[in-house]
Amino acid sequence: MVFDHLKKLLQEVNVILQKEKVRKEESRKRGERFNVFEMLGVAHYELSHSKIIAGFLNPQGSHGQGDLFLRLFLQTIENKDKINIDTSNAKVYTEYDIGVNGRLDIFIDNGSYGIIIENKVYAGDQPEQLIRYDTFAKKKYKEGNYTIYYITLYGYEASNNSANDVTYECISYSEHIIKWLQKCIHESATMPLVRETLVQYLNHIKQLTNQDMDSLNEEELRVLLADKSNFETAAKIGAFIANADNVKKIYSLKSQVYIDSIKKDYENNSAVSFPEPNGYDDRAIFVVKIGEIHAYIGWSRDKFPKAQLFCQVEYNSEFQAKSKRPKRDESFNNLGLESLLKDQNECCLWEYFACDWEEAFKRLKKVVEIIIQKQGVTPLT
């Protein structure tokens, strides 16, 4: 009885989702989903997002609006009286070098007050990252004259290893950046080039945070789930897929057809093996080993619908465990594979694919082919 109701609910939800799929396709044909940010592939790269956000925040920026966007940003993320600084002469930097303590993703400085923004789209924290930034800020501004913000897609907190006892504020793309962009768009009504750029970036963030469903379809979905029996069933589904182990099993089942295909393609190549993922990164779903190089498909530990697929490449197996991590490098797209990672795990390469199974496994296969060609691996004995 329970499963019959679950099946019926999923069928009704799927009808709404199919309507949304048709709407998006019709919108695409009309050119309404054209987005230069998507074309440039900035979705998962912190540096790209930092440059875009900083470009709008910069009072000297080419948008020509002075400190307007910066003031709107501060109004959005804070009580307007909490940070009372002169924004007209503020300087905005990206990748600001603070020496041995690293680089600040976004740094806003007006001489007497500093704002540090650590931007995390998908990358993990570096060791003592916010601690080092806090040390820099204390030395430059003294206590109380700076604020550190930690921005993620959904407002997650930094790891204890990164922040420890550092005071910082969490902000999110899903709420704060979207609200800020909406305010900027409203104020840019008479400036079409600036407004449309903001609109495209807003749409890009909505897609990135799963908030681009049509309002009518959203409302229909809410009404459907508001029914008592439906709500209880949906709650059970939510609890089930919130469990990390269940997520991994679901992802593994979903990807089985791609796994089987890759295994078949390389079944006669003795240089390629497929170790069990259990001993690897605990997010790993499928591992391919070529010589001393390991490439694997994994998943982020976020709950649905936030969980993401990723493809990762590492040299040897020192960093496949759950503890120590190498430096992560976002140059994966060039497929040069950093001289096949032979700097003894100075870095590992990775790329996220949202929930695009086909694209993720297509990239894994491409990576395997490049490793075989470049490494000149000898057959395994």
In words, what does this structure look like?
β1 (91-97) and β2 form a beta hairpin. The protein has helices spanning 2-29, 36-39, 46-57, 68-77, 129-141, 160-163, 173-187, 192-208, 215-226, 228-241, 244-254, 256-265, 337-341, 357-375, and strands at residues 91-97, 103-109, 114-119, 146-152, 169-172, 272-273, 284-290, 293-299, 309-315, 327-329, 347-352. Mean pLDDT is 78; it is low at 318-331. By secondary structure, the protein is α/β, with parallel strands linked by helices. The N and C termini lie far apart (54 Å). α7 (173-187) runs antiparallel to α8 (192-208).
The largest beta-sheet arranges its strands as 6-7-8-9-11-10
Distance between the termini: 54 Å
Low-pLDDT windows of residues: 318-331
Strand composition percent: 15-25%
Gross morphology is globular
Helix coverage percent: 40-55%
Category from helices, strands and their pairing: alpha/beta
What is the number of domains?
A: 3
Taking all Cα atoms into account, the compactness measure Rg is: 23 Å
Counted by DSSP, the helix tally is: 14
